[in-house]
Amino acid sequence: MSSIPQQFSGVTAVTKANIYFDGKVASHTVLFPDGTKKTLGLIYPGKFHFGTDKAERMEIVAGQCTVKLDGKDGSISYSAGDVFEIPAKSGFDIEVKQGISEYICSFLS
Asked: How far apart are CA 70 and CA 33, in angstroms?
């Protein structure tokens, strides 16, 4: 299990939310002094597909979800403390069946 951060210090939070799928997925961007960025988000029940430009690392903070990476067979379930990565120029389906899944998305080089 990963050590999911409880907070980030010395960052800039972008106040305008990133809203997807009629508000069923929402996140805020956090900018770090070294130029990197992450998003902190919520996913409400539903099934959604996201494409990636850069590789991404998703850390599940709370709740549960099921993920199927593009080009892979089968789905994998994740819950609080779990981490998965998505390759650049790819995508994934994510499904939340109940409650809210909270996540930290890191954009990798």
From this structure: 32
